[in-house]
């Protein structure tokens, strides 16, 4: 694996650093050596993430990393999903310093560093690369939907959310790991930049794909996965949520991806869609969201609860209520694991 450090710009403990969080939880593409975050200098990145040390130190700057570490990474990854997908002006200095030390930059923002004159000049002078993984692929490489997906017999389960940044990708990875431990040959299809960084075998960047081709690309990666990897089970990483007005998403996976099963991730501590509190746009009740998914012809197999904004007593109460009312397993993935959901998946696969 290539060696990399991750830059989080003082946001390691925040949801904005979800790309970094995903990499800390596991990646088959990179060996993560360190996180660069001045607000948490001297700590272990795992301790900041979930209280469990990972042996990945946090340094205050690129300069401090190279001063104190004997490791020599090849890449610096932008580990934060900044609002609007734009790199803040005060981040430039650290990334340019990384390039001065011979590191190529991997960026998943809508701000393409490879088109930024200052970064272009530095990359040329330092003989390093600027890798913008959110850049749209050339149109000739994209696909329209054909209907071939309807011939796929491998079970496809979409991991959906009731909002953005609730833990869809993390829950999908946990499910994949447990399924594999039970002997179920499982592939997870990534649809975001972090999934690519984590090194999954199949996928595409959903929000870097022109809308005309999204359905076709969903179909393409599933067909490719079936043909190349021949899995027993396919998990589809969801994006946003079905009713988030700033970027509704999910029907593509249920319809174009023909996902007949779904796992829903929900944050009971949120009342409003993220960043839309001032507009008063409320997240629908989870029972309504489950009904909507079922109206698309897909079965909700289980629910994962995001723990932010609630104490354990509140979470357990919500867990019991949903499980009893909907008669499906409900878990706290970070606390309980996902074994009960995988039990439901195995039942679903055998039907």
Automatic annotation (TrEMBL):
Pfam family, one: DUF1611
Alphabetized Gene3D superfamilies for the sequence: NAD(P)-binding Rossmann-like Domain, P-loop containing nucleotide triphosphate hydrolases
Every D-glutamate N-acetyltransferase-like N-terminal domain range: 40-136
InterPro entries linked: DgcN-like, DgcN-like_C, DgcN-like_N, P-loop_NTPase
Domain D-glutamate N-acetyltransferase-like C-terminal per the UniProt entry, residue ranges: 143-342
The protein's name in its UniProt record: EBNA-1 nuclear protein
Species of origin: hydrothermal vent metagenome
């Amino acid at each position: 694996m290539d060696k990399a450090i991750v830059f989080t710009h003082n946001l390691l403990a925040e949801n904005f650093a979800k790309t970094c969080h995903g990499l800390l939880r596991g990646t088959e593409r990179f060996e993560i050596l360190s996180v660069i975050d001045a607000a948490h200098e001297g700590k272990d990145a795992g301790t900041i993430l979930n209280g469990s040390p990972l042996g990945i130190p946090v340094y205050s700057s690129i300069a401090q990393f190279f001063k104190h570490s004997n490791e020599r990474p090849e890449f610096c990854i932008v580990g934060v999903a900044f609002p609007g997908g734009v790199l803040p002006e005060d981040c430039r200095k650290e990334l340019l310093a990384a390039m001065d030390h011979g590191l190529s930059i991997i960026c998943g923002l809508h701000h393409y560093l490879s088109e930024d004159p200052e970064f272009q000049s530095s990359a040329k002078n330092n003989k390093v690369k600027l890798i913008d993984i959110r850049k749209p692929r050339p149109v000739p490489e994209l696909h329209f939907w054909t209907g071939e997906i309807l011939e796929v017999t491998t079970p496809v389960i979409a991991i959906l959310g009731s909002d953005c940044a609730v833990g869809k990708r993390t829950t999908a990875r946990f499910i994949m790991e447990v399924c594999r431990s039970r002997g179920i040959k499982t592939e997870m299809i990534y649809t975001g930049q972090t999934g690519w960084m984590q090194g999954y075998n199949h996928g595409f960047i959903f929000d870097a794909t022109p809308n005309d081709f999204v359905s076709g690309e969903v179909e393409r990666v599933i067909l490719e996965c079936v043909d190349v990897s021949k899995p027993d089970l396919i998990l589809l990483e969801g994006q946003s949520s079905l009713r988030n007005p700033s970027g509704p998403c999910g029907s593509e996976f249920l319809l174009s991806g023909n996902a007949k099963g779904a796992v829903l991730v929900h944050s009971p501590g949120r009342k409003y869609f993220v960043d839309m509190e001032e507009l008063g746009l409320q997240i629908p009740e989870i029972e309504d969201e489950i009904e909507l998914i079922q109206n698309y012809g897909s079965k909700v197999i289980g629910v994962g609860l995001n723990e932010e904004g609630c104490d354990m007593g509140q979470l357990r109460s919500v867990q019991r209520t949903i499980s009893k009312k909907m008669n499906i397993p409900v878990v706290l993935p970070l606390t309980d694991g996902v074994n009960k959901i995988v039990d439901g998946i195995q039942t679903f696969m055998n039907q």
